[in-house]
């Protein structure tokens, strides 16, 4: 196994840690921030359920990506990270710009979500022999539900959840 493969494996296992740190930051006020914009309110139970399911999926994808050098797993990982990590990070940044204030989750979005996702995209492209254009396309398309959710919350006071 080469150095790049070890880097990809490390990145894969960083995903659950980065996600957990982001959820911890969000737990300090995201539900309240969200509920100030959207009716009906998001319950803590729904927040916990959604984040728990996403955490389990993230662990499964990290495990698969860390043991298999497979293009299909690479595409699945890019899609999941494009949706859950990259797009979510972009929505947090957009929300903070529009609010003109800190949105819970912003720090981890900037410091962890964007750098880890972009580094992972590059590593998957290299290690799974996927063209960068394909990786970018998969990541952006997979992020559409998160971008729509962000748009609904920020501009319509609505939610997909």
Q: How would you characterize this protein structure?
A:
The protein is mostly helical and about 160 residues long. The chain contains seven helices and no strands. The model has no long low-confidence stretch (mean pLDDT about 95).
SSE order and pairing:
Elements: H1 3-27, H2 30-35, H3 44-67, H4 71-99, H5 106-127, H6 132-142, H7 144-156
Mean pLDDT reading:
94
| Biggest beta sheet attributes | none
Distance between the termini: 42 Å
Secondary structure tally, helices = 7
- Structural class comes to mainly alpha
The outline comes out as globular
| Sequence stretches where pLDDT stays below 50 over 5 or more residues | none
Instruction: Give the SSE string.
Output: HHHHHHH
What's the count of strands?
0
Amount of helix: over 70%
- Computed Rg: 16 Å
Strand content: under 5%
Question: Quick gist of this model?
Answer:
This protein is an all-alpha fold and 161 residues long. It contains seven helices and no strands.
Highlighted features:
single chain, 161 residues, mainly alpha, 81% helix, 0% strand, globular
């Amino acid at each position: 196994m080469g150095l790049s493969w070890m880097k990809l494996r490390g990145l894969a296992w960083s995903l659950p840690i980065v996600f957990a740190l982001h959820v911890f930051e969000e737990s300090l006020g995201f539900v309240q921030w969200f509920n100030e914009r959207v009716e009906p309110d998001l319950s803590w139970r729904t927040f916990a359920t959604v984040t728990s399911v996403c955490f389990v999926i993230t662990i499964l994808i990290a495990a698969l990506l860390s043991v298999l050098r497979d293009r299909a797993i690479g595409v699945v990982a890019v899609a999941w990270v494009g949706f859950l990590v990259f797009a979510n990070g972009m929505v947090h940044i957009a929300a903070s710009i529009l609010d003109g204030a800190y949105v819970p989750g912003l720090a981890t979005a900037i410091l962890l979500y964007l750098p880890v996702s972009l580094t992972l995209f590059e590593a998957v492209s290299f290690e799974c022999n996927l063209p960068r254009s394909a990786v970018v396309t998969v990541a952006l398309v997979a992020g559409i539900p998160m971008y729509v959710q962000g748009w609904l919350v920020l501009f319509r006071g609505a939610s997909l959840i």
